[in-house]
Design brief:
The termini are far apart. The model has no long low-confidence stretch (mean pLDDT about 95). This protein has helices at about 5-10, 125-130, 250-255; strands at about 15-20, 25-30, 35-40, 45-50, 80, 105-110, 115-120, 135-140, 145-155, 160, 165, 170, 180, 185-190, 195-200, 210-215, 220-225, 230-235, 240-245, 265-275, 280, 285-295. The protein has three helices and 22 strands. It has about 300 residues and is mainly β. The structure holds 6-O-phosphono-beta-D-tagatofuranose (TA6).
Length: about 300
């Protein structure tokens, strides 16, 4: 793994800088006229995004661990190559991409934004968990808006299937005083009710734990934060499933890296390929999933 000095020599720009982050993990900070942001090479995990003149957009847990090989709680976990529990035993929840170290491929700065490209590729360690050859690229475009693009390439000789989620945690002032619009009449799988299929009626309001996988939704979702008087708009491509999650009280209390009252100020809206939306990738083929976040 390159040293911070090598990373800065190769990839630093006026706005991009690599430094020691929490837990001694290497962190990239972005200080651009249009936004500030930060991410960790551990998991390719974005932990902060704030357009200038706005409040932070991403929620971070004050109890998150920052240990190599362990997922960070909050920000934007990259779930890949499966979403949720793996079918096989002792394989990590939400895949392994968020637990391993990513390498920097390139960085670029323009007047309007910065772009950073990271990648991981298959090796003996990944093949011991998932027996396929792949190259996975993650691209952040950070400016007044944030886009996150995940490109899977099959570099092996056999097809494989992937489940993914750009598992974004959004910062809201009071989760009981927001509405999520854009999913009205969309079918969803209720992960809290034996994965029964249901249909969304109207906007989503949060008054208890919610864990739903909206299927066949290419729709834009808006988080209307009445208290902060702002709307977070979430567009996407390469995905026909959107996950909405808030652990609410008892699940928040059960998670060691999640503050007991953390549920009050967050909601996850995840751009996914989950359940029936998993993707088959043939040799030399690729799949791109993208989430674009803007604040109004
Ligand atoms: O957001 C959907 C979900 O699958 C929830 O069921 C919850 O488990 C969440 O992901 C967080 O998962 P994690 O493994 O990060 O604790």
């Amino acid at each position: 793994m390159p040293t911070l000095e090598e990373l800065n020599k190769l990839y630093a720009t006026d706005s991009i800088n690599f430094q020691v982050g929490e837990g001694g993990l290497p962190k990239c900070t972005i200080t651009h006229p249009n936004a500030t942001a930060e991410f960790y090479l551990n998991g390719g995990h974005m932990t902060h995004f704030q357009p200038t003149e706005h409040q932070p957009v991403l929620w971070m847990s004050s109890e998150s661990k920052f240990e190599a090989g362990k997922p960070i709680r909050g920000g934007i976990p990259i779930c890949w190559p499966w979403f949720g529990q793996a079918v096989e035993e002792n394989r990590p929840q939400h895949g392994f991409a968020r637990n391993i170290n990513w390498t920097v491929v390139q960085t670029q700065e323009t007047f309007d934004f910065v772009t950073i490209e990271l990648k991981i590729e298959s090796n003996a360690e990944t093949k011991s968990i998932w027996p396929h050859s792949f190259e996975l690229k993650l691209r952040f475009e950070i400016g007044k808006k944030l886009s996150i693009e995940l490109e899977t390439r099959n570099t092996g000789a056999a097809s494989f299937r992937i489940g993914t989620a750009i598992h974004s945690y959004f910062n809201v002032t009071d989760a009981s005083n927001i509405e999520l619009s854009g999913l009205d009449q969309v079918d969803y799988i209720d992960q809290l009710d034996n994965n029964l299929p249901k249909q969304q009626q109207g906007e989503i309001k949060i008054r208890e734990e919610i864990d739903r996988v909206y299927i066949e939704s290419g729709h834009q979702v808006s988080i209307v934060d009445r208290t902060m008087n702002r709307v977070i708009k979430i567009k996407k491509s390469g995905s026909q499933s959107t996950v909405v999650w808030n652990p609410w009280i008892s699940k928040a209390n059960r998670m060691a890296d999640f503050p007991d009252d953390g549920y009050r100020t967050m909601v996850c809206v995840e751009t996914a390929n989950a359940f029936t939306d998993v993707r088959e990738i043939a040799p030399d083929e690729q799949h791109v999933i993208m989430q674009k976040i803007s604040v109004a």
